[in-house]
Each structure stands twice: as C-alpha cells, then as structure tokens.
Amino acid sequence: DVKVTQSSRYLVKRTGEKVFLECVQDMDHENMFWYRQDPGLGLRLIYFSYDVKMKEKGDIPEGYSVSREKKERFSLILESASTNQTSMYLCASSPTGRNRYEQFFGPGTRLTVL
Amino acid sequence: QKEVEQDPGPLSVPEGAIVSLNCTYSNSAFQYFMWYRQYSRKGPELLMYTYSSGNKEDGRFTAQVDKSSKYISLFIRDSQPSDSATYLCAMGLGGFQKLVFGTGTRLLVSP
C-alpha cells in the first residue's frame, strides 16, 4: 500500500518559533509538494520539488522554505512562525511521466501558532 | 476571478440519490482533470482522472469534461452515507506537474 506520512498530526507553536514539518513517501516518486488548506481558500501550493535538492516556488512561498536532501523526504520550514500560518499543511507526491498529475497525499498536519 | 470555481455546499441528499458535483474554470489550456475525495481530518485521495474532453466511468462514479464550456462534473449514482466527504476538483496544464484545485464541495448523504 503506497504511503505518504507526515511527522505530526497536530502541532502547537508560539509566534517566532522555527517550525519543521517533515514528509516521507515510500513510492520512489520524483515530485513532492507542500500545500496549505484553509476554509474557503482550498489547497494552495507553497513549494514543490521535482528532484533531490531541486525546489520551485508555488503560489504562496512567503514565510516558508523547503529542503529535499533525499528523494523520499521533503521538509517544510517556517523560519519564524506567525499566527497567519495557522493552517492545515498537506504533503503530496507524484511520479513523473503520464501519471505525473496523480498526487498522493499525506494525512496532514494541523498547525496552530499562538 | 479564480482560475477554478467550485460551489462550497454543503450539498445534502438522501441515500440512493444521484449527485452532481461541478467545477468551472477560466484557463482553456487545462488538459488534465481530476476529482479528489477528502474525508474529515484526512488528506485528499484521487477518485477520478481524465484527460481532455469526454466521459469516464468507474463503478458508481462518472467524470465528465466539457472543454468548450470549461465545465467539469462528477456524478455519483446510488449515493451512500459513506460518500459523505468534501470533493475537490483539480486541473493541470500539459507539461507541468502542478495542479490547481477548487475549494471543494461538501457532500452529506443521509441514511
């Protein structure tokens, strides 16, 4: 059974803290994505990576950075957490080729910044 | 104007009803069309995937794409309470891996 796992289901942090969200996939997928999901706004792409050490900005990259040192792992970093980054964060992965749009999602991390 | 528009619902139907979920889009370059289902407190899971125009059927689910009208639909026949979830449409451009998602429609199927 294919799997995308995320390090935490729920996380509470304080304003100004550095926050790490980790995502691991076991499908040998080249592409990995980080989204945030907010009511009324849907899924918005923060960053994606199409290969190890490669990254591309999505639609809302401000306040975030990413790291992909290994193919199976994609980390999202909030350098200095702010209350407007309280959200559900979803990681996804997809293969290359004709199935590249088939994104497999993790269960999500609900982050609250106080 | 958003690239992809989707009615947020909720859409409430009785068990056994035929459900129609819809999205409209503005970018005529979209070529790949997907429907994801998301249960509460879970990540989205891919339900249907179509390329270009036409219909695709999988069990009780039928996905329809009308590129001339920039309109896609998901039909659910004989709806079940287990179909209660949020349904997200998503679209991709040829040559790129990125998807643009609708905001999702919440469906409630009552027994």
What features would you describe in this structure?
The complex is a heterodimer of chains A (about 110) and B (about 110). Chain A is mainly β. Chain A is built from no helices and eleven strands. In chain A, the strands form two sheets. In chain A, strands 2, 4, 5, 6, 9, 10 and 11 form a seven-stranded mixed beta sheet that branches. Chain A has a four-stranded antiparallel beta sheet with strand order 1-3-8-7, with no helix packed on it. Chain A is globular, with a radius of gyration of 13 Å. The relative contact order of chain A is 0.33. In chain B, the strands form two sheets. In chain B, strands 2, 4, 5, 9, 10 and 11 form a six-stranded mixed beta sheet that branches. Chain B has a five-stranded antiparallel beta sheet with strand order 1-3-8-7-6, with no helix packed on it. The model of chain B has no long low-confidence stretch (mean pLDDT about 90).
Helix percent of chain B reads under 10%
Strand content of chain A: over 45%
Helical content class of chain A: under 10%
Distance between the termini of chain B: 37 Å
The assigned structural class of chain B equals mainly beta
Sheet of most strands of chain B: 6 strands, mixed
- Helices and strands of chain B, in N-to-C order? EEEEEEEEEEE
**Class per helix and strand makeup of chain A:** mainly beta
Q: In terms of per-residue confidence, which ranges of chain B show pLDDT below 50 for 5 or more consecutive residues?
A: none
Termini separation of chain A comes to 37 Å
Shape annotation of chain B: globular
Number of strands of chain A: 11
State the assembly state of the protein chains.
Answer: heterodimer
What is the radius of gyration of chain B computed over CA atoms, rounded to a whole number of angstroms? 13 Å
Task: State mean pLDDT of chain B (0 to 100 scale).
Answer: 92
Greatest chain-chain contact: A-B, 23 and 22 residues
Largest sheet of chain A: 7 strands, mixed
Arithmetic mean of pLDDT of chain A: 93
CA-atom Rg of chain A in angstroms: 13 Å
Tally of separate helices of chain B: 0
